[in-house]
Amino acid sequence: MVSIFSYVDSSKFWMKYSPAYESCLSQTLYLGTLKRQKNQKSGQLVKHLYQLTSTALIEMDDKGNPYKLAYPHWKLLDPFYEETSDGPNFGFRLGRKDFYAESSESLDRWIECLKKICIASTFEEDFAIIKEIGKGSSSTVYLVEDLDTRKQYAAKCVHKSLLKEKKSSFRNLIQEIKVLYELDHPNIVDLYYVYETSDCVYMIMEYFPHGDLYKRILQKKYFSEEDCAKFASALLDALDYIHSRHIVHRDLKLENIMMIGENDYEFKIIDFGLSYEGIQMQTERCGSPGYIAPEMLRKCKYNHRVDIFSAGVIMYIIITGQHPFNANSASKILSKNMKCKIKDHFMLKDRAKEFVMNLLQALPQDRPDAICFLDHPWISNMKKTSVCHFIATSSTRVGSVVIE
């Protein structure tokens, strides 16, 4: 199978090690010996010591010093078993290179570690699909079970035919994988493995049996104001974390916040497919109507503060139970969204109102960064006796789109 990710990873496999790559030596995942062919003509297998880290596979010389390294992130990992006159060979192909382990047990250890940073090829052998639990415009999410541990995961499946037809879908997939492997925060979904089969790419992530924030709001009659403040603190702390790493989500909404327990302030942010990295201003319009910052809809250049506006919409909803730009069609929602005329709701009072309205400033320069909100009096001095009632409304659900 030719990996669809070979277009991403077209560089030479090995690079000579130098002190400039010293950072690659940190976060060791595994250290062990492997054999590989000395050259194609002789077929002779030569044993080397290898260090696998979170970013590189490093080959050591005879003295145990780093000699050369490879970046395995976008390389397809394919285990194999060979019968030879000298006995069985247990190995794996990484990209276009073959490596041989000393035993089946050693191979299992290498594969388990390599799967954390490579593109695995054994989805059918490792997981059983239980049922479909979600569907979007470009992907389907399944509940799957690890056949060894019996642990359940969510598997986001994207068909390779779609990735080949739509460059934007492939770009979004690459971006989501890259970003999720970089991030490590208690309020951001964990990506465990990426698999590729002949037909699909699967992202193996956490499974959230408690559903998303949209469903939680429909189910609950009220939240305490204390929980709303805790939710705001966690959300803005997560945004401060990703923004400090020059990552912008661009599609924050109720459906992209998954609840991880019975508490209404425990959640994880998902779906980084529309995210971007960098400090440069952007112009592409994308996201979900009703959550998009006005400057994006006005075709102006924008930065990370578009996420702050989306967070403001979310906070308005969980405090009042209503959407600030509620309407019966996507076009009307976008029109209200762009004008940014926020309805003054009776459940927005005092410091909570000031907090939310600062998030929802129409001009990005008037919208503070996430870190500036974490010491807001509404969060730090919340009275536990306050109660915020949710009003389940029939607000229109609109999917994420790239707006032409």
From TrEMBL:
Q: Which organism is it from?
A: Stentor coeruleus
- Keyword terms, alphabetized: ATP-binding, Kinase, Nucleotide-binding, Serine/threonine-protein kinase, Transferase
* Name of one Pfam family that matches: Pkinase
Domain of life according to the entry: Eukaryota
Keyword Kinase, does the record have it? yes
Q: Where is ATP annotated to bind?
A: K156, E255, N256, D271
Q: Does the keyword Phosphoprotein apply?
A: no
**Active-site residues, as the UniProt record annotates them:** D251
What are the residue boundaries of the Protein kinase domain, all occurrences included?
Answer: 127-379
Q: Which PANTHER family does the UniProt entry name for this protein?
A: SERINE/THREONINE-PROTEIN KINASE IAL-RELATED
Transmembrane domains' residue ranges: none
Q: What is this protein called?
A: Protein kinase domain-containing protein
**What are the top taxonomic ranks of the organism?**
Eukaryota, Sar, Alveolata, Ciliophora, Postciliodesmatophora
Its quaternary organisation is: Monomer.
Q: Which InterPro entries match?
A: Aur-like (IPR030616), Kinase-like_dom_sf (IPR011009), Prot_kinase_dom (IPR000719), Protein_kinase_ATP_BS (IPR017441), Ser/Thr_kinase_AS (IPR008271)
Output the Gene3D superfamilies linked to this UniProt entry: Transferase(Phosphotransferase) domain 1 (1.10.510.10)
Q: Which family does it belong to?
A: Belongs to the protein kinase superfamily.
Task: Cite a single GO MF annotation.
Answer: protein serine/threonine kinase activity
Q: Where is the cross-link described as Glycyl lysine isopeptide (Lys-Gly) (interchain with G-Cter in SUMO2)?
A: K253
Q: What does UniProt give as the signal peptide span?
A: none
